[in-house]
Specification:
about 350 residues; Ribosomal Protein S8, Chain: A, domain 1; seven-stranded mixed sheet
Length: about 350
């Protein structure tokens, strides 16, 4: 799978390798290709902590029975504007992409589409499930109950909450739509795992130990807590997401959440939701909304920066051009990830994905 420069791999080659890795665990070809494409898409748009980096976790859960390789993703309940999808414990990308597509269909028909997911699994970054809405002239939103509990309730010590991320998108006449994808913790656990893989330290303020002192060694992350954004406010937001993505869908929340990395045999029943909102339901054309948004965004970017501060940027700025560059030039993977993918290939009987 040579791809020119030694430190890059083509999108096509990487997608093909990931799909083949899934097929070794019994995932049908079409499903394997769909999930692989979404995983690589995450890397293309710069969400490396939630892209191909997660392949080892997914393969382990398929291998050990924690994830169903041949799910039947179905609509369990439906109204004109809402639905609940049952992911049948399959790879999470399958249920979430189905939820995104159904939400957009309902939005075109009813003005809004809100689709929850139960019996799902980790599905990569939420951005890939809200960007298509913005590209179609809609507003998108998504959230998920995190796939492991790393956060105590504010002021407590029991691990009962995850990073519980949230994403929202909106169209703009600019080159980039507005795409905010954020955890309700100061840092996502994926970023900490990447630092551990690279042998680098965390900044202070991401985690604390059970003694309340700062924790900076990512290898000791199991000994501490992730900190919520904004203290009690981040805690409250995390709980709200748990209600909407977990409880509302009959999915796991609180102590029912399964740690999907250390427990590779249990069903996680991960809860998620995707929303699409058609701006025409509010009397605006997509162009009117996009032009108005772009005008406000220009005002925000035009604000003079503080001394020593970089110019103002908005969530999503630069993503379109960066993604196009990666599609053209290939993806640059850090050495630790390349080594891990090579080890995975050997484990499942596939050729080296990065031959010299």
């Amino acid at each position: 799978m040579a791809d020119g420069a030694q430190d890059t791999v083509s999108v096509t080659s990487l997608s093909g390798f990931v799909a083949e890795a899934f097929r070794t665990q019994g995932v049908p070809a079409d499903d394997a290709a769909k999930v692989a494409a979404l995983m690589v898409e995450a890397d293309v748009f710069g969400y490396g902590t939630h892209g191909v980096f997660r392949l080892r976790q997914y393969l382990a859960r398929l291998r050990d029975g924690g994830c169903n390789p041949t799910p039947q993703v179905t609509v369990a309940h439906e109204t004109s504007a809402t639905a609940v999808i049952d992911g049948d414990n399959g790879l999470g990308h399958l249920a979430m992409s189905a939820a995104r597509d159904l939400a957009m269909t309902k939005a075109r028909e009813a003005g809004i589409g809100w689709v929850g997911v139960r019996r799902g699994n980790h599905a990569g970054p939420l951005a890939i499930y809200v960007r298509p809405q913005a590209e179609a002239g809609m507003i998108g939103m998504a959230a998920v109950v995190g796939s492991a509990n790393h956060v105590p309730p504010f002021g407590g010590t029991d691990l009962l909450l995850g990073t519980n991320p949230f994403a929202i998108s909106a169209p703009s006449a600019d080159a980039d739509p507005f795409v905010l994808d954020m955890a309700t913790t100061v840092a996502a656990m994926g970023k900490i795992k990447v630092l551990a893989q690279r042998g680098e330290l965390m900044p202070e303020g991401w985690m604390v130990g059970r003694d309340g002192a700062p924790l900076t060694d990512p290898a000791k992350r199991a000994d501490g807590f992730l900190l919520p954004i904004g203290g009690a406010k981040g805690f409250g937001l995390s709980v709200a997401i748990g209600l909407l993505a977990g409880v509302l869908n009959g999915a796991a929340f609180g102590s029912d959440v399964v740690e999907f990395t250390s427990d590779t045999t249990s069903e996680t029943n991960t809860g998620q939701f995707v929303m699409a909102l058609d701006v025409t339901a509010f009397g605006l054309s997509p162009d009117q909304f996009a032009d108005a948004a772009a005008r406000v965004f220009a005002e925000l970017r035009g604000s003079p920066p503080l001394p020593g501060h970089a110019p103002v940027r908005l969530p999503g700025d630069g993503k379109t051009a960066a993604a196009e560059a990666r599609r053209t030039a290939g993806l640059s993977l850090n050495p630790a990830l390349r080594k891990d993918l090579q080890a995975l290939a050997s484990d499942v009987g596939l050729p080296d994905p990065f031959p010299v």
